[in-house]
Structure prediction request, 846 residues.
Amino acid sequence: MTTIFYLLAYFAFAAFFALACCKIRGYLAASPLHVRWEIYPVPHEGKKAAYGGSFMENSDWWTKVRHVEHFYDILGIFKEVLLLEATFKHNHTLWFRTYPFHFGLYMLMGGSIILFFTVLAGLLGASPLWNPQEMEGFVTFIHNVLNSVVLIGALAIFGGGIALICRRMNDEGLAVYSSREHFLNIGVFVLFAFLTLMTWACNADYVILAATFMHNLLTLNFVPQESNLFALSMLLGFFVLLWIPLSNMQHLLLKYFMYHDIRWNDVPTQASVTNQNLIPDLLKKQVTWAAPHIAGDGTPKSWLDVAVNVPNKTEK
Amino acid sequence: MNKHLQIRDISTVEGQLTTVQENDLPQQRLDLKFMPWKPYTEEQKQSFACLLDEVNVLNIPVPKSKAEEEDLVNRFLTGMRKLFTTENNFTCLPMLQTSMDNCVQCNSCSSACHLFEMSGENEMYRPNYRSEIFRRIYKQYIKKEPFAKWRYGDLGLNWKTVARLGELAYRCNLCRRCAQTCPIGVDNGLIAREIRKVFSQELGISPKELHEKGTVLQSRAGSSTGMTSQVVKDNVEFIDEDYSEITGIEVHTPFDVKGADILLLHNAGEIIAWPENVAAFSVIFQEAGLSWTLSSKCAGYDGVNYGVFYDDAQLARIALMHMQAAKELGVKKIVIGECGHAHKALTVIADRVIPYELQTPRESCYVTLRDIVMSGRLKLNPARNDFPVTLHDPCNIVRLMGIVSPQREILRKIAPKFREMPCHGVDNYCCGGGSGFAIMSRNNIEEWRGNITGRKKMWQIGEAFKDCLGPETKKYICAPCSNCKGQIRELLAHNDLYEKNSFAYGGLVELIVNCMDNVNPGFIKWGEDE
Prediction:
């Protein structure tokens, strides 16, 4: 049973990364070059972004060097991810519920990353986080920080999650669109946060439990967990990892592309030789739309054929 | 009829799904009259799917048998499957796919939508209502996700779902204000357009004003107005004669000048409905000493491209004709006249559809005009524009192209009493005629534009002029886009606002010519002057 528990952990991590890669690959494969679908303001326009302006405000813009300030794109996405800026601006009531929830997630994700690297450092000779007797110096400090991070993070997820569920149930507009999956998604996190809080409260030291588990994972040392509550919360955590890429929570993975590759992708073809070369290839793709004005006659056609052959008669 | 719809109602409700009545509409500063809906005739009900509300854009024929019902559903599903293939939809698949998979239903988009707000928050107009129906069909019937019925609810797809969804795709102005506010990056405007594509590209169902009388006519005759090359040249010659007399300047609009610097691409509707706009461009370009021309090649004199509203194939065909007209003349650039969707279609969308070697650079007329006005090449007397002016921002040019400043630089220079509307620039609201509705009036579409879609624009106008409402002060609504002007014209006329408030509307070029020192005064006309 203990071995299965550890194998599930490896499987959950591996499956998460595999599914995440599939999702991203699927996005990139959907089209080598989609049409420009930008929407302003676009942050990399720099000063113009303050009012939503673009390079197309310049006369003969194609003769001028494009100044793309990527720093503002990065700043923009950081503000959006870390502060949920758009929700704050456009859905204030929801922000007060969803921000604690997301903040809690960031705390636990960040805490897990710190835990991983601290345990890894311990394996490489630094003070061992998983052994309270030998722990010292900076690692002790990290240990204390992590214990606070887990408590604050789990409380934020729990509180935010409950508030989100209540909002979905009681807001007339949201209720129409809230399916079982929405409640499942939030509910799983709430339960996970609850088990984490219980584990934190019922055991002497949460971080030692987590560090020991991480140490065992990294050293293939399949020994039983000291706390059943911790084991239960981890099992739920494995499910969450798997579930994220399969549900609408995949926005964790695709938001970057939805902002950078769609909303802010304003690269004119004139400025991209790669794009110039892609267009003729894409126009060779076969079209099977059945309407009479496209390929309704059943003759194999490419997009190029469709564009250059305009039907002479009215179809309808 | 239910105003608090559930998702499943799209499939289960018998008869008309919902309605918006006078008492649902928010009150506002300007006195706007409710335009009563004309009831459907029995013949209409028997012939066409009148199942959504009082408006009928698509006129989808009612299936005559169970087999025809199933055929409609199956053809729709076949079209949806094609929509999710790279071969058939390389243009939009990444945007569509991500909008299908990532929406968390937070409804942040709702308050951004002028239709939702101005319909008294009727559920049908919530940007997510249409999207979520489409999404659930996708997950349950196309992607066939495990446990989809349990996870999202069983939608119960039938012919009524399909007919209503098609119609619902035409309850959106495609202004993409909702997309601008989405925290994730989901685009409900795109989804509405993709549904329109399935209907047009697979089922051959589209509004006749956009297809038969729009792109098909334009491809065949050269213009969606039906004007042939010779008719356009004759009309422009008449305009030149008339406006030479009116302005006191000998106006000559050049056609087919090979090697000119600029091909000016008007919306041909201007030639018929707003000749003063065509004349004003000619006066400005001529007096500024530009090297420019119009084209008389098929479609080269009409920048309209209604394909951008409903059909990728038609979009590509028209855009290609525009590019060919420019290449044939060997111009250095195409300057697009005051037409919002023409701007976006040819500058932004066509940019990755038309092979680069066939392209000619495109520039907005706002930019060209800004350079002319700021260069001092025209002698301008802003005192002639000494009346309150406000500016409407066409969504396609402003939010979707980021051209915000040039038109304002011009107005600050030539209109001393220029004031912004609330929610201006990239935060603007659609005029209510966006995505082709400005040219439609049948089947209660005109009433719909007056009652719901144009209402937010009228709120903006009322707020911009709140200090000078009434007939005493002449006021000018600058709407530099052909479709937007058409919509504003009808809103003003229907509500008697020309008389009640001394409004005039028009483009940017008319304001420029109105203050040109060497032009006879009074180029812009108010109701009583016309």
